[in-house]
Amino acid sequence: MGLLQEFKEFAVKGNVVDLAVGLIIGAEFGKIVNSLVQDVIMPPIGLLIGGVDFKNFFFTLKEGAIQAGPYTTLVEAQKAGAITINIGTFITTAITFAIIAFAVFLLVKAFNSLRVEKKKD
Hints:
Elements: H1 3-12, H2 15-48, E1 59-62, H3 74-79, E2 83-85, H4 87-114
Antiparallel strand pairs: 1-2
Helix pairs in contact: 2-4
């Protein structure tokens, strides 16, 4: 059986469509979780720890060549060409990852509990 024929059978079985649907839904789920973290979870956490805006929580390593600091926002620092360590962005991304990983864990756990285990004879 040729490689082209094998690919045709693979594609016709629906595996490609299932994969595409899974990728699209996964990408959109990631956007929802990202918004949840950035817009709902992080603002109260920032407020509780002293009014920190995680979008602008960064350290300047080197001032920009275009404009000297101090910079009030990360966007301002980036436009000035400053070199920064973006702690707030990292923390937000780590929390987003943890939520997505937990959701995938729950999904796999639910799927595994639905599978009927074969009894050993």
